[in-house]
Amino acid sequence: MTPDGTAAPPSADGAAVRTLELTKHYGASVALSGLTMVVPRGEVFGFLGPNGSGKTTAVKLLLGLSRPTGGEAWVLGRPAGDRQTRSRVGYLPELFRYQGWLSAAEVLGLHCRLAGVARSEWPGQISGALSTVGLTGHADAKVETFSKGMQQRLGLGVALLGNPELVILDEPTSALDPVGRADTRTIIRHLRERGCAVFLNSHLLGEVEQICDRAAVVADGHVLAIGRLDELLGSGGVRLRLTGLTDVGRAALARRGTLAEHDGWFVVDGVDAGAVPELVADVVASGARVYAVEPVRQTLEERFLSLIEAEQARWQR
Amino acid sequence: MAALTIARLTTREAARRKLLLALAILTMIVIGLTGWGFQHLSTITNPDGSQIPASELRLAVSQVLVLVEFMFSAVLALSAVVVASPAISSEIESGVALSMLARPVSRYQVVLGKWLGLGALIVVYVAATTTLELIVVRATTGYVPPGPVGLALYLSAEGIVIMSLALLISTRLSGMTAGVISLVLFFLAWIGGIAGAIGQVFGSIGIKNAGTISQLLLPTDALWRGSVYELEPVLYRDVLGATTERAGNPFFVQSPPSVAYLVWAACWVVLIVSLTVWSLHRREV
Q1: Which of A115, A119, B188, B255 could connect to A162 by a Cys-Cys bridge, CB 3.0–4.6 Å?
Q2: Which of A181, A196, A231 is the last residue of a domain?
Q3: Could you give the 3-state DSSP secondary structure of residue B51?
Q4: What confidence tier does B122 reach under pLDDT thresholds 50, 70, 90?
Q5: Count of C-beta atoms within a 10 Å radius of residue A208
Q6: Is B188 in contact with B214 (CB distance < 8 Å)?
Q7: What's the whole-number average pLDDT of chain B?
């Protein structure tokens, strides 16, 4: 509550992004349906979903490039699309192009000007962005001569101008080679270290798994799951290669989780990491000989696919 | 501030894409050729070898100059349409607009910036071509039209009007479609103006009103007629022009657009630019 007793607005916590039942329809087509989420400041947030799931629509709504059909959204504590707030947000669109007849440095200069960066800071901002994305040697080259990967690097540099408090990256590594992807992950980690929130819109799940603190999975315009990555991926399990497993030993394994056998491994799903030593001790005590113990964890891709398949099954019903 | 940035970007694009260079080279060639033509025109004689009276020669020069300026006006209108039609739509289609509109820039600033940049290009083109052409005509024939400044103002206004229309359509339709629509309307307005004048000569209220309505809906033809008025020798306007046979001629004008009409033309531009702002504001990118 505020000092005068009125209810605080939902944006009062100043989260990097907050949406409440955000909805977007294009005619009869539902692009986004009731998106509710919070992205705290300083967090790297993965926004996952298959093609056409509403990810880019959500980003455009957050930036005021598109108007919601329903619901509300706040960015950095202000209503989405607020003009002044946009000076504190960096954005790399998914499908974009910069003026091909400008040089890389000129594109950065143009965006410094549009973003309201003080003129005295332009040289430092431009050279810093070029250096960060590895384009220092191409500062004066025309953008029309750039490969798609170089353009994506430039786009990332543009998004970093003006020390934003929130950076929205829409499929930032789709055109990058493995080195470029590693560089992008490093840049995102640096942004997090200086307290900048990163909203990472991607279907490259490996990328998200490596760098995101939390993630949301969307499909057909609504959120299927949201939370910390370890929450999303579940408690995992353990697999053991062993011989001489008795009924007592089998019962000991089954007591800790769901037991299954695959390719000569005994897999126990749903085991907390802290319980593994006791599980192994019980199995050894039962007379079995243990040759290997490995943690088993559902990858984000597996989790993602299971969520999408469950959603599709729900719709088919 | 952002509007000026976008205006500068627009003019810089025209320079970088060599539009200004191409126009400059072609204009110099055209002015050179017309200079050669005017030079010959000033030396022609009657079939019997006698000198043509100076007043008749001036009349001939003025009429050829109207035709030359008509060509410049058509080039200006076509160029303005070609440049303005994709000015917004192509940036939305290509994704250039995404990163720019995500900046703290209002959409009215984008429209104003584009309009100012394109308007500046039109004014520079008209000022340069008009000045050079009139210098060449004076040097070769000694003829100076009565209203060179008015001529440049009317031509610039005509270019700005058609550019504004193309920019408005560009917020909703592709550059190709916006260009075709703008040009069709431009020529319809031209024909409408001629029809209106013919209607006036023959006392046909319906045709005359159709012409008036077309001039109100798109002021390009009426502004072109203002340019013609500024090119004609005063004697021609006052004496020879008083005959009704000439009233339907698109290359002859007896009186300039009224002040009320010029105010309407200015309001028309403001209205169209406002509509452009509204249209882009409503557009989702």
Answers
A1: A115
A2: A231
A3: strand
A4: very high
A5: 23
A6: yes
A7: 91
- Is the torsion defined by CA of A204, A206, A212, A216 positive or negative? positive
* DSSP-derived secondary structure letter, A91: E
Answer yes or no: are the C-beta atoms of A136 and A109 closer than 8 Å: no
The answer to whether residues A93 and A33 belong to one domain is yes
Q: Is A81 left (phi over 0), alpha (psi -120 to 50) or beta?
A: left
CATH of the domain at A252: 3.30.70
CATH code for the domain of A154: 3.40.50.300
Distance of CA B33 to the CA centre of its chain: 21
Domain ranges of chain B: 2-282
Which has the closest alpha carbon to A39: A105, A98, A89, A100?
A89
Domain total of chain A: 2
**Is residue A307 a part of any domain in this protein?**
no
**Cα three-residue angle A249-A250-A254, rounded to 5 degrees:** 120
Decide if A308 touches B, using CB distance below 8 A. Answer: no
The count of CB pairs under 8 A between chains A and B is 66
Residue A230 CB neighbours (<10 A): 11
Nearest to A152 by CA among A179, A127, A128: A179
A13 pLDDT more than 70: no
Asked if residue A175 lies in contact with residue A153, where contact means CB atoms within 8 angstroms, the answer is: no
Length of chain B: 285
Per-residue confidence (pLDDT) for residue A237, from 0 to 100: 81
**Does residue A46 lie within any of the structural domains?**
yes
Q: Which chain A residue's Cα is nearest to B101?
A: A65
pLDDT at position A175 is 84
Contacts of A98 in chain B (CB under 8 A): 96, 99
The verdict on A199 touching B (C-beta cutoff 8 Å) is no
Q: In what order do the strands lie in the sheet with A89-92?
A: A89-92, A166-170, A197-202, A44-48, A214-219, A222-228
Task: Reduce the DSSP state of residue B59 to 3 states and report it.
Answer: helix
Task: Give the integer Cα–Cα distance in Å for B160 and B116.
Answer: 10
- Using alpha carbons, list the distances in angstroms from residue A203 to A35, A52, A159, A172: 18, 11, 20, 10
ipTM of the complex: 0.86
- Distance in angstroms (rounded) separating the CA atoms of residues A94 and A169: 8
Per the structure, the complete domain to which residue A109 belongs is given by 10-231
| Helix, strand, or coil (residue A226) | strand
Is the minimum CB–CB distance between B106 and chain A shorter than 8 Å?
Answer: yes
pLDDT tens-digit readout, B57-101: 888 898 899 999 999 999 999 999 999 999 999 999 999 999 999
Q: Tell me which chain B residue has its CA closest to the CA of residue A161.
A: B103
Q: Best interface-test mutation with A: which of B89, B99, B107 has the largest number of A CBs within 10 A?
A: B99
Q: Nearest by CB to B99, which of A60, A64, A96?
A: A96
Evaluated on CA atoms B144, B147, B149, B153, the torsion sign reads negative
Residue B106 buriedness (CB in 10 A; 0-12 / 13-18 / 19+): middle
Whether the CA torsion A134, A138, A142, A148 is positive or negative: it is: negative
